[in-house]
Amino acid sequence: MTHQHLITATKAAFLLSCAVPISMPAVAKDSDNACNPETHGAVPNDGKLDMVAIQAAIDACGGTGGIVRLSAGEWHTGLLTLRPAMEFHLAAGAVLTLVPDMKLYPERIVKRPDGTVEDFHTAIHAPDARDLVISGPGRIEGNGEKFWDANFYELGIPRSTLPRPAPLLSISDCSNVSISGLQFNNIPAYALSINRCEDVRLVDITIRNDPRSPNTDGIQIRDSADIFITRADIKTGDDGIVLKSRLAPIDNLVVTDSIIESDDAAIKFGTRSEVGVTNSIFSDIVIRNSRYGIAIFQIDGGAHLDNRFHNMLIETGGRHARQYPIFIDIDRREPDDSWGRVERLTFSDIDIKTTGASLLAGNANAPIRDLVLSDINVNLPNGEIDLSTGRKPRGSVTIAAQEDSADYSRQSAHFAFAHIQGLVLDNVSVNPGAKGTKRQPSFMNDVTAVGNVDVIGPKQPIMQD
C-alpha cells in the first residue's frame, strides 16, 4: 500500500464538508483597502517588524467577512490575534516569520472551567473563533532553534529550558472554522492547537520539523467535536496528532488520507484524557519512521469508546530502541484515581513493518472490552529487537508506576494481549522474513475470546538459539 494508492473510505464525508461553505457577513464596502496590511504600513521583505500593521488589518476585517492577504514576500511578526468572521490568507510565496524575541509574545493566563490555570505564549491566537478561514498556500516559519537553548541539539537535554511560543497557532472556543493549504516549518513548540471547538476542517496542512525538536506536536485537539482532517502531511519531533480531553470528549473526529512521521506517537490518545475519545475514525493513513504507530494511553479515568482504525500502513522507526506499532494501556496516574475504559475498538486492514511488537493490555481492575483486530499483517524486514528488558511506557516520564500497574512489555511475542473481555482476531498474521523470529506469534493473559483468537505465523519456522 502506498500513499498514492490509498482508497479514501471517507471521501463522501470530505466532499460533504467542502460543500458546506463558511458563513460570513456581508463584506464592508472599503474592506479590501482596510484589510490590506500594506495600507497600515507593512512592507514585505524590508526586514522590519510587520506585526502592528498586520494586526491593524486584522482588527479592521474582524466581523466583516473581509480577507487579510499577505502577498508574496517575507513578513515578520510577533503575537497576532485573529478575529471572528474573516479570512487570514497567505498567498503563494508569502512567508510569515516569527521574530525570535519573547517580548513580542506576551504571556496569557487562562483559567479553565475546572479551576486549572494555564499560561501560554501563543504566536497566532484565534479566541472565540467563529466563521474563520485561515488559508495558504503560504508558509509560517517558526524559527524554532532561535527560541531554544544555544546549541540545543548538542546539549542532549529533552526539552528547551527557555520560554517559547507554544502553540504556534491556537484556535479556541470556535465553530465553523476552516484551515487549509498552510505549511508550518521549524516550529518552536506545538504547531496547531484546537481547543474547545466544533465543526473544524483541516485540509492540506504540512508540518516540517527536525525529529529531534522538543515538544513539537503537529496537531493537538482538546475538548472538541466534529473535526475533519484530510491530506495532512506531518513530519515532526513529537506526537503527530495528539488528543486530550479534560473537560469534554473528543467526539466525531475523522482523520483520513494523510502521512505522519513522528519521533514519538504518530497518532496518540494522550495522557490528560479525563473524559475520552469517542465515535472517531482514522483511515487511509501512512505512518512512517515513528516510535509508536497508534498509542492509546488511558491513565486519567476517561472512556475511549467506539473508535476505529482502518486501511493503514504503519512503519515504526526513529531513534528509540523500543517501538510499538499498536500500543494500548489502561493504568492510573495516582493510586486513588478512577480506572479508565477502552471499549469497542477496531483495527482493520493494517500492514505493519517493525522491529518492535504490539502491546494491547488493560488491567485486572479495568479490562479492555470488545477489541477487534481484522486483516492485520506484520512484517519484520529488518529483524527484531530483544524485548526482555525495559518497561512499558506511561505516556510521560513524570508518571510513576503504581502498585497495581500491570506490565506485559517484556513478553517475547509479536502481540501481547492482557486483561481483555471480548477479543476478536480475524486473519492476523506474522511474516518474519528471511531473518526469522525467536518470538511467539502472541502472548495472552486473562483474555476472553470471541471465536478463534490465533495469530497466524510465523510463515517460517521459529528460530531457536
Automatic annotation (TrEMBL):
Domain of life: Bacteria
Keyword Signal: yes
Signal peptide annotation: 1-28
Record key words, sorted: Glycosidase, Hydrolase, Signal
InterPro entries per UniProt: GH28_Enzymes, Glyco_hydro_28, PbH1, Pectin_lyas_fold, Pectin_lyase_fold/virulence
Pfam families (UniProt xref): Glyco_hydro_28 (PF00295)
Family affiliation: Belongs to the glycosyl hydrolase 28 family.
Record-given protein name: Glycoside hydrolase family 28 protein
